[in-house]
């Protein structure tokens, strides 16, 4: 009997030794760090045995590491990859390793504070149903609107006159909220805005959790970078940790989404030509040419046939039965789809940043309109901000980058801006899938 008991004790000790995130039945220091990063459902986690919980935490952390490695289009340092995790296990220093894995970005820390703050809210203001309220109109819902905006961490201007009036300052606050949320910007309290504001703290925390997870993909923090937030249609140039330049962008349509990635700008191409992909030719250019036989010629395209060293006019091609291997190239000029500037970036998705001749589209509130690449409202300003002096000539020229600055193309539908919690529309429907893992 004593031999059997001793054997059970030895086997039990070996089992506990195999656990990475637990000491006995409790999370150890490394496990507590990991729990703060993953933010799992606490009730679901508590229902697991120590072995199940340990396996789940390991699996989810490996998933984060795989997401990082897919996100980055360049080699990450070892401690940010799976290799660093394996080394920490081998060297038995998981606690120190995990302590260094939290994203060292102000945006992450501010969003995390909102996540914790919302957990403390047991009661919150809901806006009563009612008709659309326009600027200057009175309504009993306006005081509730002010309270709700304050609960979301937004700076709410003091009433100008009566507290139940949607005054100009409060209307502008609503317009900012609508703009960030991908809604039509009216400055009015309408039904879509009520729905956005009436989400419970639990619903808000679920969305914030999905976005905190996305922060884990970013490479180790640097003080200078370009951030493109796809759902908010905005590019920000950050210098020394502070926004230096911001501009509107156009991103990919839901059926042709802009990918999430980290890369660098390798070159600036001045007066670029454009070779559209086979999908763009098939879905956009061919229908336009078949409808209007002069479309491609008029817009500066040349047609290249396989094996030929000179292009031919598009008008010489039978577009109802085009030859296989045909390639179209649009010459530089005022109608070129890439405009005057193209920022070349190395990535497996073949996307880049570029100018556009159609500036009117930047006047729209919802700008998921492209084939995946990112169009810039003011590419010349970005070029200057990155240290280039753009030449004034009209010939095509490729300029090397003055510095190697990282570019992060992210999908943040919730973030903190000036201390306020801000939401954007989930234009690609990613949030539900993101929270299914919890």
Q: Helices and strands: which structural class? A: alpha+beta
Regarding CATH, which class of the largest domain?
Mainly Beta
The strand count comes to 16
What gap, in angstroms, lies between the N and C termini? 44 Å
> Mind telling me the CATH superfamily name of the largest domain?
L,D-transpeptidase catalytic domain-like
Overall 3D form:
globular
DSSP summary: helix tally: 15
Question: How many domains in all?
Answer: 4
* Mean pLDDT score: 91
Look up the CATH topology of the largest domain: L,D-transpeptidase catalytic domain-like
For the biggest β-sheet, the strand order reads 3-4-5-12-10-9-6-14
Beta-strand residue percentage:
15-25%
Helix amount: 25-40%
Q: Any guess at the CATH architecture of the largest domain?
A: Beta Barrel
Largest sheet: 8 strands, mixed, barrel
Which spans of ≥5 residues are poorly predicted at pLDDT below 50? 1-16
Radius of gyration: 27 Å
Question: Please, could you describe this protein's structure?
Answer:
With 438 residues, the chain is of the alpha+beta class. The chain folds into four domains: 2-102, no CATH class; 141-199; 204-273 and 333-435, L,D-transpeptidase catalytic domain-like; 278-330, no CATH class. 37% of the residues lie in helices and 17% in strands. The chain has 15 helices and 16 strands. It has helices spanning 2-18, 29-38, 42-46, 50-71, 82-91, 94-99, 106-119, 141-151, 168-180, 191-197, 201-215, 278-291, 295-298, 379-385, 431-435, and strands spanning 22-23, 26-27, 225-229, 234-239, 242-252, 261-270, 301-304, 327-330, 341-345, 353-354, 368-370, 374-376, 397-399, 406-410, 414-417, 420-423. It has an eight-stranded mixed β-barrel. A two-stranded antiparallel sheet has the order 1-2. A hairpin with a 2-residue loop joins strand 1 and strand 2 (26-27). Helix 2 packs across helix 4.
């Amino acid at each position: 009997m004593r031999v059997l008991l001793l054997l059970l004790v030895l086997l039990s000790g070996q089992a506990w030794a195999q656990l990475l995130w637990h000491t006995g039945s409790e999370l150890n220091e490394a496990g507590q760090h990991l729990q703060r990063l993953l933010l799992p459902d606490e009730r679901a986690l508590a229902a697991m045995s120590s072995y199940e919980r340990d396996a789940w935490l390991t699996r989810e952390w490996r998933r984060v590491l795989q997401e990082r490695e897919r996100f980055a289009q360049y080699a990450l340092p070892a401690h940010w990859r799976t290799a660093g995790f394996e080394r920490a296990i081998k060297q038995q220093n998981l606690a120190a390793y995990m302590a260094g894995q939290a994203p060292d970005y102000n945006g992450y820390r501010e969003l995390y504070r909102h996540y914790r703050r919302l957990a403390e809210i047991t009661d919150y203001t809901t806006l009563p149903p009612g008709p659309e309220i326009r600027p200057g109109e009175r309504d009993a819902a306006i005081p509730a609107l002010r309270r709700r905006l304050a609960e979301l961490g937004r700076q709410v201007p003091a009433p100008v006159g009566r507290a139940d009036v949607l005054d100009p300052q409060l209307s502008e606050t609503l317009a900012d909220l609508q703009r960030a949320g991908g809604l039509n910007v009216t400055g009015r309290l309408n039904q879509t805005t009520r729905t956005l504001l009436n989400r419970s703290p639990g619903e808000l925390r679920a969305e914030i959790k999905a976005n905190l997870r996305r922060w884990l993909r970013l490479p180790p923090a640097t003080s200078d970078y370009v951030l493109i937030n796809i759902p908010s249609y905005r590019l920000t140039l950050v210098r020394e940790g502070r926004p230096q330049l911001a501009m509107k962008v156009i991103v990919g349509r839901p059926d042709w989404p802009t990918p999430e990635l980290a890369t660098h700008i390798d070159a600036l191409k001045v007066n670029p030509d454009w070779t559209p992909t086979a999908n763009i030719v098939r879905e956009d250019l061919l229908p336009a040419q078949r409808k209007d036989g002069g479309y491609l010629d008029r817009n500066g395209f040349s047609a290249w046939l396989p094996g030929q060293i000179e292009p031919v006019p598009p008008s010489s091609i039978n577009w109802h039965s085009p030859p296989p291997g045909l390639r179209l190239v649009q010459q530089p000029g005022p109608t070129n789809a890439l405009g005057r500037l193209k920022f070349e970036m190395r990535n497996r998705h073949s996307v880049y940043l570029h100018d556009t001749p159609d500036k009117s589209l930047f006047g729209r509130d919802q700008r998921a309109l492209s084939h995946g690449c990112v169009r810039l409202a003011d590419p010349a300003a970005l070029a200057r901000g990155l240290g280039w002096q753009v030449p004034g000539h009209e010939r095509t020229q490729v300029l090397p980058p003055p510095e190697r600055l990282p570019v992060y193309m992210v999908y943040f539908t919730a973030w903190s801006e000036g201390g306020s919690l801000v939401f954007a529309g989930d234009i690609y429907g990613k949030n539900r899938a993101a929270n299914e893992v919890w």
